[in-house]
Amino acid sequence: MIIGRVVGETVSTKKHPSHEGLKLLIVAPADLQGEPLESVTPLVAVDPMDAGLGDQVLLAMDGWTAMTAMDLPGSPIDAAVIGVIDHIDVSRDLVP
Amino acid sequence: MIIGRVVGETVSTKKHPSHEGLKLLIVAPADLQGEPLESVTPLVAVDPMDAGLGDQVLLAMDGWTAMTAMDLPGSPIDAAVIGVIDHIDVSRDLVP
Amino acid sequence: MIIGRVVGETVSTKKHPSHEGLKLLIVAPADLQGEPLESVTPLVAVDPMDAGLGDQVLLAMDGWTAMTAMDLPGSPIDAAVIGVIDHIDVSRDLVP
Amino acid sequence: MIIGRVVGETVSTKKHPSHEGLKLLIVAPADLQGEPLESVTPLVAVDPMDAGLGDQVLLAMDGWTAMTAMDLPGSPIDAAVIGVIDHIDVSRDLVP
Amino acid sequence: MIIGRVVGETVSTKKHPSHEGLKLLIVAPADLQGEPLESVTPLVAVDPMDAGLGDQVLLAMDGWTAMTAMDLPGSPIDAAVIGVIDHIDVSRDLVP
User: Of D63, E13, A53, A8, nearest to C62 (Cα)?
Assistant: First the structure.
């Protein structure tokens, strides 16, 4: 999983029928301080965790994993929010 | 999923039999304004959404996810358009 | 899928038994003009399409997708040529 | 798999029910000396190996592989620690 | 698949029970001359081919593909050596 930050959402009228009613968040891959990485393009993920704008989240980025997160094996999904992060504990002398 | 923009299509005579009749779009990974990213090479995706040239689309990039989008589990596909994006709402103070 | 160009082939004596007789092509990821990208290392893919040296091809790069392309679910394959490209139509004003 | 170094952990209250009680480590992809790579963002992985802070670990980064490592096929996981590395033997004349 | 070069091995005491007795090689992604790429970090792969130090190998990098290569569907593996390369034939005028 990677750490991401919710920065927006996307809306589609034309979509796979199984996506009806699903919230699709724009999540920016983030560093250990939760700041979006400038060099990486934001992703779009389904959100069964009801994360809010600005939240730091745990993002799964594998098809089967994301379908499992939603309990929707017949729905085309390849990224899902699987947790809202409360805090991150990092040993500062171990990271560059 | 990622955000992409439809920039063309590709045609093959020699192909997997299950691809007969499928539309194969060239989709450029795009930024949050829908502009193709210069540093990233365009991808090829099947399109069950009937997206048009220039459309902003939601692109799934996982084999099983793409097969599920097409409802073609026996067809070799690893990328599919799963939505045509109407609009993207981004909180500008959250992105770099 | 990505667009690639066939630039060679690779030969192994020691290999998985299921690979006996399979052709393994070296495919360079290519731009929309079919020119190999300098910054990306060539990949190795099985080829059920009988592509020739120099051909522009459609490359699937997912394990299950590639196994499906070969109809060999018990054979370790993670990339396969799934089409020989006749032509690519791109709207020049849409790409950078 | 890649070589990683455990640099911290992350805590979530809102999470998938199957993640209750799982330890989620922050693992920095590392070079052959076990030093975190500056250019690569740390990942989050489940840890069935009870690795400690600073440990060099073997990291699997595929959904089905990670679920298999945990023996939790119904839990959304896409990265798992699958070994704690004792030592790495590298032939110095073979690496740049 | 990608072309790699065996540059070492890694040893773990704490590991998934199914990894008992498996050889875990360090494989450096390589160019078409078999030289390790400086810009890419070495990977760790299981080796059912009994490759030797310095060998050029064919590397599969997908979970299900690697499990299939080992015939170990219940073992967490996401990369496997699936061939030892004898020679690579590349058309020099086709590569940059």
Answer: D63
